[in-house]
Amino acid sequence: MRSAIAILARNPDITYSELAKAIGIGRATLYRHFPKRDNLIREISLYSLRQVDVEVTPIFAKPLTAMEMLTETLAKLIPMGEQLHFLSREFAVMQDEEIARIYAAQLEGLRQLVRAAKAEGGIAADMPDAWVVRLIDTIIYTAWEAIEAGDVARNDAVELVIRTLNTGLRAL
Q: What CATH number matches the domain at 37-167, 1.10.357.10, 3.30.830.10, 3.30.1360.170, 1.10.1200.120?
């Protein structure tokens, strides 16, 4: 799954034959497991969404402030930027009921975290929740992309994202 995600995230138009070869399996094997490209895309999408839950759910069980939870969540999600980017490019898959339900629940969890951070004063109360959620979603991918390009060190990415969310781009 991870290999397929990495390849499809960079080349969404790759043929099934090229994809099988790039993954290191035979085309027949790929077809046996996923008879249609849509089957593969659906399974990759479910895998990616489930991985988000696996990584993020334990954070909410810790006795942390909302901003600490947000920081830890970002630390888990930024390395998953490729998977999240893949999902954002596969608009048709969001029509799948199961995928849409899981994604909606994840967004609602993020909205609740944003509201809690607002209540603590970590995020400006006058910022619309939807704006902050979209900003966080976008900045996760941007951080991952910068890491992959070698523009930002992996260890610095979370701090840069939190700093950007907290202070924007103004000089300190």
A: 1.10.357.10
